[in-house]
Amino acid sequence: FKIREVTAGELMECAMEAVRPLADKKEQRIEFAGREAEWEDISLSCDLGWTREALGNLMKNASEHAPEGSKIWVRVWENPIYTGIAIEDEGEGFSPKDLRCLFQRFYKGERSGKGGAGIGLSLARSLIESQNGEIRAENRKQGGARFVVKFYKGMGDEGK
Q1: In the prediction, which pLDDT does 117 show?
Q2: What's the CA gap between 147 and 61, in Å, rounded?
Q3: Which residues lie closer than 8 Å to 97 by C-beta, 6 or more apart?
Q4: Could you tell me if 101 and 77 are in contact, meaning their C-beta atoms sit under 8 angstroms apart?
Q5: Are 50 and 20 in contact (CB under 8 A)?
Q6: In this predicted structure, what is the pLDDT of residue 35?
């Protein structure tokens, strides 16, 4: 990894490149929560290329499982312990079985389509955890899926 300080805005703009064609084709809107200025004030230490790949996989998953014309929300926040990123969609959400296995390599969920090899979410988890982060998946109370990523600050950044 080539760890450097990046802003949330730069990171999410790069991650969106992977999902933009699919979202455009499905006429989905990607909305960023919070004020635009906050996206430039929040930063994290990560490898921009690999973290873009991980978050792009999460956004692509959200787009694939959300209906045409729906919204995908991206929210970034920070506190003294970590920088958080949430990606939410208006799809069907995850089945209980899928929630237990979602990040296993080659696992394809009950609602997954014909495409994909079942490695995108596993790769995302590996890349995030290798950079002092964690990831979880859950269902939104209003329906749809949510991925929550946390990158912890100041712990284990040295020497990467």
Answers
A1: 58
A2: 10
A3: 110
A4: no
A5: no
A6: 65
**Residue 88 near residue 73, CB atoms below 8 Å:** yes
- Ramachandran bin of 136, using left for φ above 0, alpha for ψ from -120 to 50, beta for the remaining angles: beta
Can you spell out the DSSP letters for 71-109?
EEEEEEEE-SSEEEEEEEESS----HHHHHHTTSTT---
**Stronger pLDDT, 104 or 156, i.e. the higher one:** 104
As a whole number, mean pLDDT of residues 25-40 equals 83
Alpha-carbon gap, residue 131 to 92, rounded angstroms: 30
d(CA 146, CA 160): 29
Give percent helix, percent strand, percent coil of the chain, each to the nearest 5: 35, 30, 35
In which band, very low, low, confident or very high, does the pLDDT at 158 lie, cut at 50, 70 and 90?
very low
- Give backbone dihedrals phi and psi of 92, rounded to 5 degrees, phi first: -80, -15
Report angle CA 108, 113, 116 to the nearest 5 degrees.
60
Q: For tokens 């730069």, name the residue.
A: 10
H or E element, residue 42: none
